[in-house]
Every structure is written in structure tokens, then in C-alpha cells.
Amino acid sequence: MCKLLTRGFTAGWIMWPGGGIAATVAAWQAEYGLGPIDRFSWSLSQPPEPLSPRQANLAKLLQPIACGSAYRPMPAHHRHLETVPELVLASTSAYRRQLLAQLGLAFRVIDPQVDEQRLPGENAAESVERLARAKALAADRILTAASPSHSLIIGSDQLSILGARVLGKPGTQANARRQLQQASGHPVEFVTAIALLNSTTQDITSRVIHNRVWFKVLSDAQIDAYLEREQPLDCAGSFKSEGLGIALFRRVQGDDPNALIGLPLIALCALLEAQGLDVLTAATA
Q: How far is CA 88 from the centre of its chain?
């Protein structure tokens, strides 16, 4: 019995057949749906059954071998043999960190250092999806340069639209006041993209979530009081829906209320599950 390691996590124990290493790898790939194995090594530590002398001698001779790279999840009945991949948030946003922490999963944060300017001719949905994917890919390059690992990397981006105008982060009190004055009594659409990159397979998937918020008619005194209390200068649209900003609205419509804060958790859970990570069971493991 030998332990096959791919990308630093244990895939499971297997017996090699009489056909030798090549036949063993082929059988493993056929059974578990693996593509070319990135690297493998044999270990004698705590095998589920004693090794025969022939197996022990062969295992000692084997060295890690590079064979390309691809990983696909094992069937559900063998899923307990896998190690949960490292979760990475490609964002320095405190709001996204707080939202992701609600899932109860360990994760690390990386600044993707991506230029967030829109490209000429891009609409809001195209821009946020491109940037969400770009952030995940940029974080992957940073991780790979330091030490390659099996990671699931999350990227996200958001824009708000008032009529034909895109509202970004105000940055200053004056800009925030202007944005809220313009939004007063009008609907504002929030377009949020989420992307998930599997660093091992380089498979990247993304979704765009739309939410619409109808603002109440706001007086200047109400706007000034809100800005003084919450200082939402780093928030698209100049409000924090998870805080007092909810008092600015008369109605909210959308599939994922967390998207308003910057990280659509419903969509993220679906993307993680597609990569073999069940948030409910992983959070309690």
C-alpha cells in the first residue's frame, strides 16, 4: 500500500499492480478521474495494511516525479481522503473579510494589486467580472512566486449605477454627499462579480450578481447626519447596507443581499461546492 501525494495533499492509499508504476498511475487516474498527476511520492508512514517486502523495497526506490499538473476532485465516497484546500481572499477590503469570515472557514488575505480602471467600451457587468477574475489570477501569481500550493482563490469587484452614470467609491465627504443627493428618490443598481480560481487546475469560474436599491427622498440634513455617523467614503454608492445605510432605502431587490456589501456569499458557496468544498461540512470539520 502506498500513499499518493498530489500538490501537497494526500489523495489516498493504493496498491500498485503487477504492471508496475505506470499501471498504478493509470489505474489511479481511471478510478479517481485524475488528469496528468502533478507530482507523486510514496510513503511508508502508517499504511492501512503491512507492506510486503517487495512493496517496501520498491517504495524506497521511488522518487517524486513531475508529470504535468491537473487535479480533479475524487468521487464522493472517497472525498474524506482529501485535505481541504487553502482558501484565499484576493482583496484587502475589511467588508469582504468580515463577510467571508461568516462562513466559518480559515482563509488568508492577499492584496492582488490590480488596476481597477474600467476599459473603454466596457459596461458595468463586463468590468466587474473582468476585474474579479483579474484579482484572483493576480493573487495566484503572487502565491506561485512564493510557494506553489493548492488554493481556491476568491476575487470580487463591484460598481453602482445611477441612470447612465457609474458611481464608484466617493473617497471624500463632498463626493459622498453628491452621490447621495443624486441617489435621493431614485433606484440605484449594484453590479457585483465573484470569481473563484482553482490554483491547481487553473479553472476559473465567475458570476455577476445584480441588486437594485430604491433610495428614499433624503434631505440634506439626513445625508449629512448619515455621512457624519458612518463615513462610508470607501463604499461604492456612499453607504453601508450592513449598518445605518439601510435607513436610506425604501426597498431592496436582488438574489443575494451580501452582494451589496461586496461579496455575494450565496454565489460563492455554489462556486466552492462546484470545486468540492461544501461550506457546511467543511466549516464544522
A: 7
Q: Where are the alpha helices (DSSP H) in the chain?
A: 21-32, 53-61, 94-101, 124-146, 173-183, 220-230, 265-274, 279-284
The size of the chain, in residues, is 285
Query: Around Cβ 58, how many Cβ atoms within 10 Å?
Result: 16
Take residue 270 and report the three cell numbers written for it: 455554489
Render pLDDT for 176-190 as a digit per residue (tens, 0 to 9): 999 999 999 999 999
Q: Tell me if residue 157 is catalytic.
A: yes
For 2-56, the pLDDT digits (tens) are: 334 333 333 333 333 333 444 444 444 444 444 443 333 333 334 445 555 554 4
CB 49 within 8 A of CB 14: no
Sign of the alpha-carbon dihedral angle for 68, 207, 257, 140: positive
Cell of 187: 433606484
Using the 8-state DSSP alphabet, how is residue 150 labeled? -
Q: Which distant-in-sequence residues (6+ apart) come within 8 Å of 272 by Cβ?
A: 152, 196, 278, 279
Residue pointed to by grid coordinates 513531475: 66
- The residue among 54 and 102 whose pLDDT is bigger is 102
The single residue of 111, 115, 140, 157 carrying the catalytic annotation is: 157
Instruction: Report yes or no: 157 and 124 within 8 Å, Cβ to Cβ.
Output: no
Coil, strand or helix at 40: strand
Three-state DSSP class for 190? strand
Sequence-distant (6+) residues with CB within 8 A of 51 are 1, 44, 59
Q: Where in the chain is the domain with CATH 3.90.950.10?
A: 86-284
Q: What CATH architecture is 86-284? A: Alpha-Beta Complex (3.90)
